[in-house]
Each structure stands twice: as structure tokens, then as C-alpha cells.
Amino acid sequence: MSPWRLEVFDELGSTADECAARARAGAAAGLAILALRQTAGRGSRGRRWQAPVGNLNLSVLLRPTRPSPEAGLFALAAGLAVAEALARYLAPPTCLKWPNDVLIGGAKIAGILIDAAANGARLDWLAVGIGLNLRHAPDIDGRRTTALADHGVDVSPRDMAAAILDNLAHWQEAPGAAICAAWLARAHPVGTSLSVQSGGRLREGRFAGLSERGELLLSGAERIETISTGEVLLGHA
Questions:
Q1: Is the pTM of this model over 0.90?
Q2: 67 contacts 122 by C-beta, under 8 angstroms
Q3: What kind and span of H or E run contains 163?
Q4: Helix 73-87 to helix 176-185 angle, to the nearest 10 degrees?
Q5: Hey, what CATH topology would domain 5-185 get?
Q6: CATH number for domain 193-234, candidates 2.30.30.100, 3.30.930.10, 3.30.450.180, 2.60.40.1930
Q7: How buried is residue 168: exposed, middle or buried, by Cβ count under 10 Å (0-12/13-18/19+)?
Q8: pLDDT tier, 53 (very low <50, low <70, confident <90, very high otherwise)
Q9: What's the rounded Cα separation, in Å, for the pair 15 and 59?
Q10: Helix (H) and strand (E) counts in the chain
């Protein structure tokens, strides 16, 4: 029996906003919201997420019994779910880029957005938003983008949502160590040069892996820094 209750809308402003509103109203875990057209999508760090018709706009409500600092693990889990779903249809391997991007050949094909609320020291609810370029690759300043259609693959949003949800059902329950290990197996290699824009600073170094909470470990000249949020540029250190 599927743990998900999928609701499909012809149009929404934002699946992430709808999912968060339902969470605050007391909706149970397992709600999945798919919009065939999204008019006010949100990306990371306050950016607008472009969502042309034909692409995937999906948000999922979880109520995990984990400490609040482990919320970042769910961005990694969602990345794994997307990468495994893409592998059903696509020969070129995907690459996961911390904390929330899925790449093909260095070009972004998907992004993940996490909204969360705490109840004391633990998570109350967590909404995982997934935007995936199926038919169109929107322009993003300073970034290369791609879509499944660019690789000769035609998949409907409903079919891709089903594939992602199948995988996410497993990863949402996995221990943090298992999530991190599987994510690292699909990510840029340890030792990759990175620049990380975080907290108003540009930090440069080499990728040193992940903490047990899914934070990025950045090896600099004198020490290893633990970074919980930021934007990564590969090969810029």
C-alpha cells in the first residue's frame, strides 16, 4: 500500500506554499501535491523557480520524528529519489550537488526546496519541494540547465512523480548514515575544488564529505569547516 496521497492540480501558485499551508492546518504525513502548471514557484535562497507547462512541480509533506538539525538530510534523500527515478529513463548518470541540485553533465535538471517547522527540539513537519525539468530547461543566470527532453526522453509529470515517490518512500525512513553514504556515491568526488557562498562569505577549499546531519564539510588551508547552508560552485576553489 502506498504511503502517499497524491493530489493533482491543473494549476497552483506554488506546490510548496500549498503543502506548507496544509501542514500548518494539521494535514497528516504522506500528502503529495502535483501541479501541472505552477505560476509562483519558489527556488532556493528566495529565487523564483520557473515552471513551464510539462515540467514536474511536486511537494510532499512529512512528519519525521527527528531532531530539527537533521532537516537537511531530507534534501539529500529527495536528491537520491530524483536521481534513481531519472535512472529509469536516462542513460547518462546524474550527479548530486550539495545541498539540493541534481545535474546531468554539469547542467542542472532538478532542484529541491525544504520548508520545515519545529516542535521544541524536534521537527513538527517538513515539506519537500521538487522541481524537475522534463520538457523545458528554464534560463538561470550563470547556470547551465537541461531537461529530459534534451536527451530524447518524454515522461509525463504524473509518471515521474510516481517514480520519485516510490523511491522517497524508502529514503525518508533510512538512517542518516545510509542517506549520506548513498548521496556521496552519486555526488562530486571527495577532494573536488569548491567555492561556497554562505552567510555573506565566500569560502574556498575542497569537498571533504558530509557530517552525520548531511552538512557539507569543506577542507581549507588550516581546518575543516562544517557548513549547514550555502550555494556551491564546483571547481572554483
A1: yes
A2: yes
A3: helix 157-171
A4: 50
A5: BirA Bifunctional Protein; domain 2 (3.30.930)
A6: 2.30.30.100
A7: buried
A8: confident
A9: 6
A10: 4, 12
